[in-house]
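ok new one. same drill as before - structure tokens go in, u give me an amino acid for every spot. 270 of them this time. try not to just spam alanines like last time pls lmao
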């Protein structure tokens, strides 16, 4: 599943090819994504210039002169730029043709993604109640501490709650909790301010490192048929249940929290 760093890398990859370009046509081959692609998307977008490409949580906001295309990559979606006229393969559902001769092609085998149109995207129901971006000053350990008081839920699903902070997916929550030495099963309300300050720093660090590594994959958004996958960040615990901890050698354990597998080190994380 594309996580926040992959979405941000997508934004950085496509933005220079979209910003300032006029859309000549939108071709939709299959409207059945998580929600149907609006019937009038071609009419709304064609003829308009794309002004900016922004990101909010895992939503890409392709801002036209009037209105915004809100796109989400779902479980298996990707966006890349190809030459117009390139035949569409299976699962390549949408082409947004530009006056430059390129087109933005949306591919999504599992069709859990989204392409929606909004005149006021930040007030769209999908975006309205989102918490702060993790890499901004609006997110810090003090926020985690304050919002967690009285909460009995485990700390891992707490930091993955989009109302608390957006974009902390399973891989990054797992790694940040390990780096901060916090047991993912611990009740959110029982963790000290000092430990939350450390945890917030680690969340920012793992996400920033992944985005930085994504920069090396930017060429994949132009021409080639490879899709950006997970970045080759060194993982200490995610996906390593049963293997030895890279720090202390203890066997890593897995527990299910909030319906997600959570790997942790029973000695390093308390
Ligand atoms: Zn350990």
């Amino acid at each position: 599943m594309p996580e926040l760093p992959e979405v941000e890398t997508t934004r950085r990859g496509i933005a220079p090819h979209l910003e300032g370009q006029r859309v000549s046509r939108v071709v939709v081959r299959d409207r059945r994504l998580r929600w149907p692609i609006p019937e009038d998307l071609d009419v709304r977008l064609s003829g308009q210039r794309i002004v900016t490409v922004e990101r909010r949580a895992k939503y890409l906001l392709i801002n036209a002169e009037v209105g915004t295309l809100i796109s989400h990559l779902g479980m298996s979606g990707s966006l890349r730029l190809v030459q117009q006229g390139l035949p569409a393969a299976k699962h390549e559902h949408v082409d947004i043709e530009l006056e430059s001769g390129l087109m933005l092609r949306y591919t999504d085998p599992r069709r859990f993604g989204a392409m929606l149109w909004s005149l006021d995207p930040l007030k769209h129901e999908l975006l309205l109640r989102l918490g702060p971006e993790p890499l901004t000053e609006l997110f810090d350990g003090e926020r985690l501490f304050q919002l967690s008081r009285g909460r009995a839920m485990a700390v891992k699903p707490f930091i993955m709650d989009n109302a608390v902070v957006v974009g902390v997916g399973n891989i990054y929550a797992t790694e940040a909790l390990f780096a901060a030495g916090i047991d993912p099963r611990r009740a959110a309300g029982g963790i000290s301010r000092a430990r939350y300050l450390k945890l917030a720093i680690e969340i920012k660090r793992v996400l920033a490192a992944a985005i930085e590594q994504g920069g090396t994959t930017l060429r994949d958004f132009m021409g080639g048929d490879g899709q950006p996958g997970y970045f080759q960040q060194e993982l200490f615990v995610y996906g390593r249940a049963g293997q030895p901890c890279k720090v202390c050698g203890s066997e890593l354990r897995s527990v299910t929290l909030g319906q997600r597998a959570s790997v942790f080190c029973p000695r390093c994380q308390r």
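The longest strand covers residues 50-56. and btw Residues 223-229 have pLDDT under 50 and may be disordered.
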